[in-house]
Specification:
- By secondary structure, this protein is of the alpha+beta class.
- It has helices at about 20-30, 50-55, 125-145, and strands at about 35-45, 65-70, 75-80, 85-90, 95-100, 105-110, 115-120.
- The protein has a 7-stranded antiparallel β-sheet, with helices on both faces.
Length: about 150
C-alpha cells in the first residue's frame, strides 16, 4: 500500500498518499518534512473495541486513521471532513518500539521515555516496516553516542 515511484536522490520509494491525507501531507511538506511511511493504523487509546476489531481484521474499506512517518516526526492522523485530528511525536523523543504479543495482534508499542502507546496496524507488513524504520533510527543514535 505504501510504495510507488522513486523520489530520486537515493532516498528510495516514496509513500502513496491516500486521497484522505492530501491536506495533511501538503502541510507537512510545506513545513519541510519528508514523507517516509504512511500506514493505516489507529492508536489504542483513541479506539473503541469495534474500531480495534476492524483494524485487527485488516478491513481496508473502513480505515479510521493513519500513521504518517516523516524524517522528523510520527503523526497519528484521523482524517475529517472539515479538519484532521493530528497527534505528533518527534522522532528524537521516541526511545524505542516493541512488538506486542509477538505481533499476533498487529500491535506495536511505541515507547517515549517511561510512557508507551499501542499502535494497531491494519496490515502487519506496514507495522513491520515501521518497526524496522524506528529500530534503525535508534541504532544510528546509539552508534552516534559512542
Amino acid at each position: 500500500m505504501n510504495e510507488i515511484a522513486n523520489t530520486g536522490e537515493g532516498r528510495g520509494p516514496s509513500p502513496v498518499v491516500p486521497k484522505k491525507l492530501g491536506r495533511i501531507t501538503r502541510k507537512l511538506s510545506a513545513a519541510g518534512e519528508e514523507l517516509v511511511l504512511i500506514a493505516p493504523a489507529i492508536l489504542h487509546s483513541q479506539a473503541s473495541e469495534q474500531m480495534l476489531a476492524i483494524a485487527r481484521m485488516g478491513m481496508l474499506d473502513k480505515i479510521l486513521g493513519y500513521l504518517v512517518t516523516t524524517d522528523k516526526n510520527v503523526h497519528f492522523v484521523r482524517p475529517g471532513i472539515a479538519w484532521d485530528s493530528v497527534r505528533t511525536v518527534p522522532l528524537d523523543v521516541i526511545t524505542g518500539v516493541e512488538y506486542v504479543d509477538e505481533f499476533h495482534t498487529n500491535t506495536l508499542k511505541l515507547l517515549v521515555g517511561e510512557r508507551a502507546e499501542k499502535i494497531i496496524f491494519y496490515e502487519d507488513l506496514e507495522g513491520i516496516r515501521f518497526y524496522k524504520y524506528i529500530r534503525g533510527l535508534k541504532r544510528q543514535d546509539q552508534k552516534a553516542e559512542v
